[in-house]
Amino acid sequence: MINLKNTDLPFEKMHGLGNDFVVLDARKRDIPLSAELVMAIADRHRGVGFDQLAVIENGAHDAHLTFYNSDGSLSAACGNATRCIARKILNETGLTTLRLTTDRGILLARDAGQGDTSVNMGHPQLDWRDVPLAEAIDTLELPIEGAPTATGMGNPHCTFFVDDVDSVDLATFGAHFEHHPLYPERTNVQVAQVIGPDHIRMRVWERGVGITLASGSSSCATAVAAARRGLTGRSVRIDLDGGTLNIAWADDGVWMTGGTTHVFSGTFTTEFIEAASCQGR
Question: How far apart are CA 29 and CA 27, in angstroms?
Fold first, then answer.
């Protein structure tokens, strides 16, 4: 295993609708990551900054993806990061479809045309055990003020349907419900406003991160919740603070389609890596 303290570390900065990521490619070299290094990279003043950090590794299929939140914790799923990396690999290989493995399972990705990328985030988890919740309870309407819906998409979600998403103090609201006792692993929090039978406006608080401009798994969870509650059909446009995703809850899983951007490539210096490693001592 390469000692990162003795070598520079290349990376790429990407985003999907402003949901931003640092991507490390470990397909040709091992990249040992500590929580301290992840958090140092996440620092938007002293590092690069990201909502999630993603590591690409060799896998049983086209690649394996591992995701970290900005607080150093692991996340089994990250939809927009998966789309960004899928676009990178599609461009590299000339393929039009991919099979990517994550802790969520095997995710299918494809070129959707006009620069857009689609990822199948798998079937939603609707049973309380799978979300997971702390007790046996109907996930459609939780006994929480606002009667939110619980959905698992490889990570837990709590979706509130409101009359006006922009009137919600999301910083306070999201931080409070992220740590609700019904969610033993914490939760992502969405506030969603139904505009029409195929149109939702949504804002997102991500566990371990905070307010984000967009979230792929949150968009999938919200689309599933709205369809389950009869508020929309199973195909919806979701307008987030950073842009628009199209979500389709199909027989083979929840498909998410939208644009991605490769912002820049860079290199973390040995000096930065050493300083970050010392923080954990």
Answer: 6
pLDDT tens, 129-171? 999 999 999 999 999 999 999 999 999 999 999 999 999 999 9
Domains in the chain, ordered, with CATH? Answer: 4-120+260-278 (3.10.310.10), 149-251 (3.10.310.10)
Query: Which of 26, 208, 246, 231 has the alpha carbon at shortest distance from 116?
Result: 246
Instruction: Considering only residues 117 and 59, tell me which one the structure prediction assigns the higher pLDDT.
Output: 117
Nearest Cα neighbor of 242 from 224, 262, 258 is 258
Query: CA–CA separation, 153 vs 126, rounded Å?
Result: 9
Q: How many angstroms separate the Cα of 236 from the Cα of each of 52, 82, 113, 173, 241?
A: 25, 20, 19, 25, 16
